[in-house]
Amino acid sequence: RALGRIQDSLAMSQKAAEMAERAGDPRHLAPALTRLGQSHMDLNAPQRAIPYFEKAAQYAHEASNPTAEAGACVWLSKAYRRLGKPEPALESTKRAAAILESAILRMRGEAGRLGPKKERMLWNMERAYANALMDLGMNHHALHQWEPARTALQKALDAAKRTSASHLMAQAHLGLGRMA
Predict the structure, then answer these.
(1) What are phi and psi of 3, to 5 degrees?
(2) What angle do CA 124, 38, 168 make, to 5 degrees?
(3) Predicted TM-score (pTM) of this structure
(4) pLDDT tens, 89-146?
(5) What contacts 53, CB < 8 A, 6 or more positions away?
(6) Which of 29, 67, 110, 165 is the most buried if burial means most Cβ atoms within 10 Å?
(7) Apex CA 44: angle with CA 73 and CA 31, to 5°?
(8) How many helices (H) and strands (E) does the chain have?
């Protein structure tokens, strides 16, 4: 993919998904199917990507991996948006944001007991949450829902600040600037 060989990327993604399917472990199936869906998106085939993102979200849920589940939902949103279907795109990002928000609140409840590994997981979830909220803001914007778009982008900015990710803060500020 980095070299522009999209067909090769698709073939390798299909092989990885087949191998993960044989192993039957949802922890491996979710990322393999997400990658396969991304390969179809690279080929401008969002309709083909949708079932892979849906399955990836399902397997990530079974594996108790909220970050992967939400990531698959954000990609699902992108596929719907590319197809000109703003309502299912919006619902997909709402789902992604809700999954991450719930997981983050659960982890914060364990704040005194978080070790370095869980602190890193929380940081990654916050970044994913910021990205999901920016996508949610874009989807609201596409539907001319200005106030929900502003709210999502402000929440994205807050999440980005918690991770000190300046590029995410900049993206949220740009989105909020479009709302002004």
Answers:
(1) -95, 5
(2) 35
(3) 0.88
(4) 999 999 999 999 999 999 888 766 778 888 888 899 999 999 999 999 999 999 999 9
(5) 33, 34, 37, 72, 73, 75, 76, 79
(6) 29
(7) 40
(8) 8, 0
